[in-house]
Amino acid sequence: MLTTLAVLMGLTGLTPAAQAGGSEVDVTLVLAVDTSRSMDFEEIGIQREGYVEALKHKEFIDAVKGGLTGRIAISYFEWAGYVVQDSVIDWQVIETEGDAIAFADKLEARPIATQRRTSISTAIVQGASMIVSSPFQSRRQVIDVSGDGPNNSGDPVTPARDKAVEAGMIINGLAIMLRPSDAPNGLDKYYADCVIGGPGAFVLPVRKIEDFAIAVRRKLVLEISYLSPPAMVQKIAGAEAGTDCLIGEKQWRDIFDR
Q1: Domains defined for the chain, CATH in brackets
Q2: Is the whole-model pTM more than 0.70?
Q3: What's the pLDDT score for residue 12?
């Protein structure tokens, strides 16, 4: 299982697609979805429904068709303190409404379960590894991370983020802020400073459970269309992070030091 920072160390300079005989798409997009126990079954169910609804929505399908090739490649997995291996839905080309519905149906059929801890670094490494090994040539390679808390397990998140960005990938975030998080200045700021990266990278916050499906759809459309959301905090290359990116690890350690 490719879930350690060591795997990422060799990515810089690689083209994340097979150069000979690969299929050309506009975007290779990995959906990395948090299923940690800080969310209850109702919240995870609504999160799942949000992705299913977004993938079937006309706005998403129109965005796919509006690209230069009119096709994208998409994959999916769930993560918490580790990658849930039986959650991985392998690459599928989305070109038609039928393709999108077929992928959404695979996702909808998955059982809902939760796992311990939160390792965003593991999610980034897994997403980067899937992009590198994909059979596609694409103009953009995107890791789409949704989560409801800071990294508190595995390797630190920023080195994993930086290696993926150096390899030419974009990491966007969906900060699930339905409950107070362990990030003192807000989970959206933590994601902006510590998780997202690459040209045009952005984070969208979700503060109300009823807004989840709209936020997911909006994020997917932005990623496919290569647009940036207005009036959003975006990472600036070379900027100093205003957030302690090890806050989750420190808080978890403090629990056991009491």
Answers
A1: 24-227 (3.40.50.410)
A2: yes
A3: 45
